[in-house]
Sequence to fold (394 residues):
Amino acid sequence: MEKPATEVIKGDGWGRFPDDLEYHSGFGNHFESEAIAGSLPRGQNSPLICPFGLYAEQISGTSFTSPRKLSQRSWFYRIKPSVTHEPFWPREPSHKKLVSEFDGSNTVANPTQLRWKPVDIPDSPTDFIDGLYTICGAGSSFLRHGFAIHMYTANKSMDNCAFCNADGDFLVVPQQGRLWITTECGRLQVSPGEIVVLPQGFRFVVDLPDGPSRGYVAEVFGTHFQLPDLGPIGANGLAASRDFLAPTAWFEDCPRPGFTIIQKFGGELFNARQDFSPFNVVAWHGNYVPYKAKADGFLPGGASLHSCMTPHGPDTKTYEATVARGNEAGPHKITDTMAFMFESCLMPRTCPWALDSHFRDLDYYQCWIGLKSHFSHDKTDVKSNDLQNGNKSG
Fold:
């Protein structure tokens, strides 16, 4: 059934999302979706003439020579092709706090445990792009190896523009405020307690239906997020494939004068103008798609960084309260909170603005200083060293 474009258009942002958004279920599945019946070609990917006069376009998440089991790509059938835009030029003013190449020229190696308090929402109008800033990372998007950890604070929806990350995949964890995310494959509503993965190369818009929003972003270069092997925890442990939801086809067909594509390329931002919405994909099929996963609730919080081989663990207050209960401690359920961790085997370098931030907790180390020794033993159990000190028989 055709969905009228006027259903979602308003002056600022992309309008209301329906409460009953439909999703495909599964992780890494090959989906197919069409917003108008018959708009998806049958039996071939790129016919000479596509249904309804659409353009066939492929987006590739892996190389053409990748083994079949690793191949990720999707076919779009869109009203106008995405190549129809003016040349890119550097975005002004430039974004000074996005990093995709981590070396001694722009970041610092620091093994100290670091922690930041929650960052304030900005007073001036700031959307997801302008509110995105890098905390730390390793490697290089140019070399297709490594990662970056970002945070974002925003108070307005993106207006007449879309973002495209050519460097890697974004995994976004909203901590405050829902996100309405429009992609070329369709729409996703992402609430605190959920995650969303926006793969490399997809164009998307972030709307803020609840006003100010804050959250975390993990970015990987040269690879894609995968579900871990289950191993000894068994076939039903961790996240199940059915917990991941992909959008269904939805499109917009209307003029968008002065519409801007903002592309992140090597950590720098570039603009290109076009006169139509990039969300004009009437049908698609493939396994390279944006997706979200459901999880438990999440309350406001800051962030911490514990680098490779740097010790960390329970703070003094938590540990002392636990051992004070002795053998009667037993299990204790922690409610109304959630913590998550981005983990990597690579050693991160930290951005100077993160180290110098007035939100950094300079007294973080104090939470462990009070840990005292609880070691005790019966001295009669200590074996004598006398035999070791005696004369040896010949």
